[in-house]
Structures are given as structure tokens and as C-alpha cells.
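Crash report, auto-generated. Payload:
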Amino acid sequence: MAVIRDMMSAFELFQPANVEDAAALLREHGEQAWVMAGGLDSFDWFKDRVKRPSVVVDLGGIDALKGIESTADGLEIGAMTPLTDIVRHPDIRERYGLLQQAAELVASPQIRNQGTIGGNNSQDTRCWYYRDGWTCYRAGGNICYADTPTSMNREHAIFGADRCVAVNPSDTAPALIALDAQMVVQTAGGERVMDAADYFIGPSIDITRMTVLEPGDLLAAVRIPSTWAGATFYFEKVRDRQVWDFPLVNVATALRVSGSTIEDARVVVNGVAPYPMRLTAVEGALRGGSRDEATAERAGELAVRGARALRHNGYKIPLMRNLVKRSIRAEA
Amino acid sequence: MADIEITEAADPGVSRRNFIKGVIAAGAAVGSANYMFRGAGSIFAQPTSPGAVERLITITVNGQQRRVDVMRQETLATTLRYKLGLTGTKIGCDRSECGACTVLIDEVPHYSCSILTHSVRGRSVRTIEGLAAEDGTLHPVQQAIVNEQGFQCAFCMSGYVMAAVGYLQDNPNPSRADLAHGLSGNLCRCADYNKILNTMEQAAENMRQA
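Recovered output after restart:
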């Protein structure tokens, strides 16, 4: 049994009932405010007393941020929609199975009942040096504890490292990017809509954040266009334990296949870089090719070109290569 | 708050006895305030912002309205066990990694160690204490455990039972593999998984017949 280290530090709690009130609270409290969705990631930080915000704005009471609606061109999913609702939604199961498969592989049933699509995409990295409260680059310091000759870095990055070698842990993020989803972000200046791929940032843009969200911003919804509805999907997540665990590597692939020809493709991998990685070079090579073993083999080789392993995560290179290969050749 | 009480107690015409009682009450209030409000002076402010929460709230637990004084950062597991005396809910890891604290919120299984008590206002909480009927008749899942002796040390049992009740209400006809998937958010350190699944298959059968 883990040592229960007293309770979380005290904070002032706000549970606004609508987006306007939430936005006003975030403007008022600025950097002091912690935005909480399902709370699974937040409570880890609070209980370890590594993050001690004085104000927590809990979005759980905002009904407008929950639910899945059909739009003229696809679906709009409120950021506070629990993952279980996504897994069970008939339209998502039927037409956007990639997202359903990804959501169903997140953590455990109870966590999916509470964890939200917005939270799953906005959660912080799992690098334990960082989460244990070490003053690394990401925490505002000037060293990476995961990238020294003696570091334990089996779960860390093989791409996109820039001082920090932590990876993005989300399962639904690569699925959303592969579906060409868009993120709807509420900022002080109004609503911003961006491609899901642009929602995630690496350390070269801001080493302390995983997403574009700045203090005061809220992720309000995810829009999925019908572009990839009913396409050929493949999602696979490799992890140490079959429940709870974050991905070591996962892959989300969407293919438009006509006969044996791949007309278009999206291949996105997570767990290998500080952000979910869309493999545009692989997609380009797949377009117009035939869906066979040779194409899959080539896609796998292309996927890991430029990968750079740390001391303990060399296995991620063949793992990623094989996952990409498998995602192309798999029969629907 | 303490100042006002002292002023009132010191008012001329107040008996010596009441004066002393007033001072004691004020002292107790100051003492507990230090304990309960530490590190958050702003909590003394009146709730004016939209979305501000009050400490004294009513939550629905096992069909009863329970009035309870809840800190902002308090988890439901803490409130259930240490404020409401419902110690059937266990705290194992306190990190949403073991399932021992599972309760039903609006009939959906949640880890009570990882949800704020303030988040269940207006929702219905059901714990292991709320399963048996008024006359003591066990819930079909509980009866299956008695019949099958599915658990060894049973520290994880109440969490498993709540997860199973929630799961079986949605999926009355699960295969063994479905059950394993549905109950995968709970750990048993005695590693009694096969017997637990036997028990839960029996539980599903009991629930279908109930």
C-alpha cells in the first residue's frame, strides 16, 4: 500500500456551471488557476504535492462541454465527455472506429468512466523524474535527469527530443490526428479552431507545456470531420501491463483503399516523441501504392528514419517500425 | 468569527458561566480553523464568484441525504470513510491504480479516491453498505461471494463488488472474457482472479434470476 501522505494541499475550488463563468475565473486567477477535467492526472500531482495550485477550476459541472453531437460534416465531441461515452457511441463505433479502439485502450474501466477526451489529450507527460518533482527543464530548471549516462529512460523519446526527452502519453491523440480532427480552444481573445496535430507542441516551442493551452485557455470541443468516416482503421497499443498502463508506443492508421491500391493514408504514432507524431513521409510513400507486404515493409523502414535512441529505449525503434508495418498490411 | 464571539461573550450582563463557555467555544473555533483551513486564507472569504463552493454540503449516499462538512480538496473516499463512517469502502493505493475504493456514482463505477466529494453534489452515491435490502437480504453479487467463497483476504472485495454491480447492470450476459475486461480496473493482491471470475459468473447468473 502506498504511503498516504496526508491529504492534498488546500486549494480554493470553483465548479462553474457554464463556459463563460469558467473563462471569467481563469482570467481572474491567471497562472494561479489549475484547470481540472476528470481529475485523474490532476490528483496525482496534488497528492504528491509536486503541483500546489491555490485555485482549482473544475470543469465537471459544465454540461455544455459534455456530449457527442452530429454536425453537418461529422461529429462534435465536448471536451468533458467521458471516454466510456465515446467507446459506446454508435456513430463513433460504426464510422470512426479508430477513436473507439483508442479510447477503449485507455487505462481502466473506472478511469474511462471519469476521464475525458479533453483531459486525455491535455494530460501531462509521465516522465517520472519530472513527476517526482525534480527541477528539470520541463519544471523550469536547467537539466534533464532522464538523459544522463545513468538515467532510467526506457519509456522516453526516440524523436523530437530537445533538452527534454519526455513523451506524450495519450492514446486518443494519435487517433484524433489520423481522423483529421480539429480542436476548439476558448481563449481570452475568443474561439480558436486548429488541427489536432497543431494542438500538441514540443519542447522547442515551450518546454513546460505539452499543448498550446496557455493559462486562461480551455479546450472546449473536438470536431471530427467525415473525411475518414468508414475508412480502414488500425490501432494498436503496446504497454507493459494490459490495464492502466500508458503506451510504450501506439499507432493509429487510417487508410482509403480501392481494390488493392492505397488512395490516401494517415499514420500517427505516439509514445515516441514529446508530441504525437504524424508520419507525413510515410503517408506520401503509401499514397498510390498497393497494399502489400513490400509497401508495409517500406513504410516501417521510412517511419523510423532519423530515430535516435537513448540508453534504454533502443527497443522502441524496431517496435515502432513493426507497428507501422503491421498497421499497413493488416486486413480490415 | 472568533472575535465576534468573544465580544459577545464579554458583553456586560453575561453571566460568568456563559462568558467562560463563550471563550471556550471561540478557542475551539480558532483551533479547528487552523487545522482545517491551513494554507488557504482566502477560504474565509464569502463565496461570491460564480462556481464558488461552500463547505457544508448535502450529498446523497445509499439513498440518504447526508449533511457533511467537506474540505475543497477532500476526496469522496475520505468523506465516506472518515466523515460518514462508511468504512466498507477501502483505500488501497489512493492513486486510482487498484480499485479497492470503487463506488457507484449514478450507478457508474468510479474510484472514490480520485474524485472530489464536491463533485458528487446532486449525484447519487452507492457504497457496499447500500447493496443489501432493508431486511438484510444480500445483493445477488454479495450472495454469490458467500456461496462461492471467491475472495481470500477480501480487502479488495468491496471494490470488486461495486465494479461488478455497475458492470452487470449494463451487461447482464457477459462471457468470462467480458467479465475479465469489465472488472479489469480492480486488483487482487492475493491473485485470486480465477475464483473471483467464478464468483462473478455466479453473480451474473444470480442477477439475471433476481
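Post-recovery validation: The domain at 56-130 of chain B is CATH 3.10.20.30 (Ubiquitin-like (UB roll)).
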